[in-house]
């Protein structure tokens, strides 16, 4: 039985240090990280079929990435440019988005306290000239590890602390009197 070329190569241990260094980077793309893990496992002598099982890919896919690494090194593990229209949200837009989200709107001279994706889209369109829909702004926020949610509106800032404390005392007294048992009658004074 003939072995595939990717299975014949035992992996190069001299490249293992470079692979380990790259795997230590926190900003490494998750897809490239998975492929580097394949290269590392192969360099350590792991069988291709076993690698395919633990990474959830087919044997052919694992062989493909090993061959790409042999031919082009780490650059061969990166995704090829996608076809279609280029992204409008370039690095500058993303940086502006991150700055805006990290700054309270009032500090930017805006008349509201909380960002929404619609407000962010409008603000960034004014700042960068790039118009994106609210949905794309939410998707970008997710990619940047920001969490979108609905603001919780409260009236705590309008309440008098002394009156709140007096109400809590009254409620505690009512709760205590209601625990006297069934049929208990309280006589008003």
Q: Between the first and last Cα atoms, what is the distance in angstroms? A: 100 Å
Strand content: under 5%
Calculate Rg over CA atoms. 30 Å
What is the helix content?
40-55%
Mean pLDDT: 84
Summarize the main sheet.
none
> What is the assembly state of the chains in this entry?
single chain
The count of strands amounts to 0
Form type: elongated
- Enumerate how many helices there are, as a single number: 9
Low-confidence spans: pLDDT under 50, at least 5 residues? Answer: 6-10
**What structural category characterises the helix and strand content?**
mainly alpha
> How would you spell out the order of helices and strands?
HHHHHHHHH
Helices and strands in order, then pairings?
Blueprint: H1 5-8, H2 16-23, H3 30-43, H4 48-55, H5 59-72, H6 91-102, H7 117-128, H8 134-143, H9 161-177
Question: How is this structure best described in words?
Answer:
With 189 residues, this protein is mostly helical. Among the domains are: 5-77, no CATH class; 97-143, no CATH class. The chain has nine helices and no strands. Helix 3 packs across helix 5, helix 6 packs across helix 7 (117-128) and helix 7 (117-128) packs across helix 8 (134-143). The longest helix is centred in the last third of the chain and has 17 residues, at 161-177. The chain is elongated. The relative contact order is 0.07. The model is unreliable at 6-10 (pLDDT under 50).
């Amino acid at each position: 039985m003939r072995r595939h070329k990717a299975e014949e190569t035992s992996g190069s241990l001299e490249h293992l240090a470079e692979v380990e260094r790259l795997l230590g980077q926190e900003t490494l793309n998750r897809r490239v990280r998975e492929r580097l893990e394949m290269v590392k496992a192969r360099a350590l002598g792991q069988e291709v079929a076993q690698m395919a099982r633990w990474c959830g890919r087919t044997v052919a896919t694992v062989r493909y990435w090993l061959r790409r690494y042999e031919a082009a090194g780490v650059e061969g593990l990166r995704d090829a440019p996608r076809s279609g229209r280029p992204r409008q949200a370039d690095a500058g837009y993303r940086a502006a988005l991150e700055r805006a989200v990290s700054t309270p709107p009032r500090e930017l001279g805006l008349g509201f306290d909380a960002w929404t994706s619609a407000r962010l889209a409008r603000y960034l369109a004014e700042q960068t000239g790039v118009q994106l829909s609210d949905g794309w702004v939410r998707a970008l926020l997710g990619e940047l590890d920001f969490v979108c949610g609905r603001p919780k509106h409260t009236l705590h800032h309008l309440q008098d602390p002394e009156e709140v404390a007096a109400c809590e005392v009254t409620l505690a007294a009512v709760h205590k009197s209601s625990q006297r048992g069934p049929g208990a009658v309280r006589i008003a004074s």
